[in-house]
Amino acid sequence: MAPSDLKLQQIISATLRGGVIVAASAGLIGGLLYLFSRPPVPMFATFTGSGTPYASPSEVLRLAFAAHGEGLEARGLAIAQLGILSLLLTPILRVAFSIVGFAMERDRTYVLITAAVLVALTGSILLH
């Protein structure tokens, strides 16, 4: 195995570990903020849906990092959702690094296949 391949595998491994750690941390922090801001009271008799402020990545970022205006409850949910988004982005980064690795090996077939996978993964998140 070439030193560049080993270095790329180490980068990919660190990315996967880091993504999971960031996702778990954000989920835990967001969940705790939400629970301590307003303890949830389940209403089993009726179902009331809520809006979808957490449907787009830009809105999640806005709510998670809002200086003021949104309550602690909304910020907690947004931070938890940010954890989910980071968990979704982790394999996308892994695929992007794989493209770099295949390009370094000059393997055009795998670069094209992996690029198609990257487009599909990215599109599935952005084109909800």
Q: Mind sketching the topology for me?
A:
Layout: H1 3-37, H2 57-64, H3 72-104, H4 108-126
Helix pairs in contact: 1-3, 2-3, 3-4
What's the short version?
By secondary structure, this protein is mostly helical. 74% of the residues lie in helices and 0% in strands.
Task: Describe the fold and architecture.
The structure is a single chain. This protein is mainly α and 128 residues long. Helices cover 74% and strands 0% of the residues. It has helices at residues 3-37, 57-64, 72-104, 108-126. The longest helix has 35 residues, at 3-37. It is elongated, with a radius of gyration of 19 Å.
- Intertermini distance: 40 Å
Mean pLDDT: 82
**H/I helix tally:** 4
Percent of residues in beta strands? under 5%
- Overall outline: elongated
Order of helices and strands: HHHH
Tally of discrete structural domains: 1
Radius of gyration: 19 Å
Please describe the biggest sheet, giving its number of strands, its sense, and whether it closes into a barrel.
none
Task: Indicate the percent of residues in helices.
Answer: over 70%
Class inferred from helices and paired strands:
mainly alpha
Total beta strand runs: 0
